[in-house]
Amino acid sequence: DFCLSRGLGDVYKRQRLRKLGEDITETPEVIPRSWKVIQRVREKFSCRACEKVSQAPAPFHVTPRGWAGPSLLAMIMFEKFGQHQPLNRQAERYAREGVPLSLSTLADQVGTCCAALAPLSRCLDAHVLAAERLHGDDTTVPVLASGKTDVGRCWVYVRDDRPFGGTAAPATMFRYSRDRGGAHPREHLASYAGLLQADAYSGYGKLYDATRQPGPIQEAACWVHARRPFFVLADLTQSARRVAEGRSAGVISPIALEAVRRIDVLFEIERGINGHSAEQRRAVRQSVSAPLVAEFEAWMREQRARLSRTHDLARAMDYMLKRWPAFTRFLDDGRVCLSNNAAERALRGIALGRKSWLFAGSDRGGQRAAAMYSLIVTAKLNNVDPQAWLADVLGRIATHPASRVAELLPWNWQAGRVPTSKAA
Predict the structure, then answer these.
(1) Which pLDDT score is estimated for 234?
(2) N or C: which end of the chain has fewer CB within 10 A?
(3) Where are the alpha helices (DSSP H) in 57-188?
């Protein structure tokens, strides 16, 4: 009787309850990375008739007499060049996970992978140098020397036709050098003739020579570089900080503030035509931007005449006025961008990574890093997972026809074609 009455009571309660809704609490959790060893058994057979021993061929490894699979190699390469994790830190982490790998072993794998990917790097360089317009920039790279570090350079050249409606895939080409001599960009761009958007580095000067072969390179200056000293002199950042701290705003240079305001108007116009065709961009610039640029030039020359030669504002104005044809080239060519931000974004990873890896071990290490930066940054520009792409490419580049190596470039690659891409 007790059990029966209890059961009826539960039924009665359920009949009185009505569901109003539900709350879901989601708690992210992580599954630790797992390692596995794939064993491939190759049986040997002897033939009693011909007295020969036969055996299936050994499985392919990216490195000669290697041991690591493509997904592991892709992880090592991406961690080092994409996530800026030095090999010694990787070795420590792998050891804690129960996989002891020596630093020298990892370094050997990196060098061999760079050699295996060299044909892809050359194909990528050819694609970049076929552009009508390039962005160029460079940054410092400390290089280990005898008892010290030297200051090397890492150069980047970016092809990105998307701002003027181009259909070619964006790509980057990195180069390493021991110094910042002007001979290096001349060597990098020896076969190039077109537009180059860069800063006012004097080493680019001979590239703009009219007698240069295979043709002169047209200079397009960066308005962001020109705006920067005016912005500093306007002291906008410091003034905003003082106001946030409850103090009175600092003294702001009205001339510098006016220069910043005029340049910002031009950038606002550019935001409205970004992605349009070169012809459409040129038409808008001729009708809207050209009068503003002419007024800006006249205003600067008027203000410059009132300033002393050593004034900081005078230097900022002279920087633009001495290179005025390069600054106004965007008015007559819709392919030109107003800024060189594409190159600066490509170098951002190196600037962040310097605090982690501290220096390149040698010139050869710097050259390898430049080649890998080219591949990884290009993959990111094309919204491709660099590690998955590297795992796929490393797994089949040895058997891929050399005449079709362009099929392995990030924008031609399709994820999921082989299992190694999923494993990555």
Answers:
(1) 83
(2) N
(3) 70-81, 87-96, 103-116, 118-129, 183-188
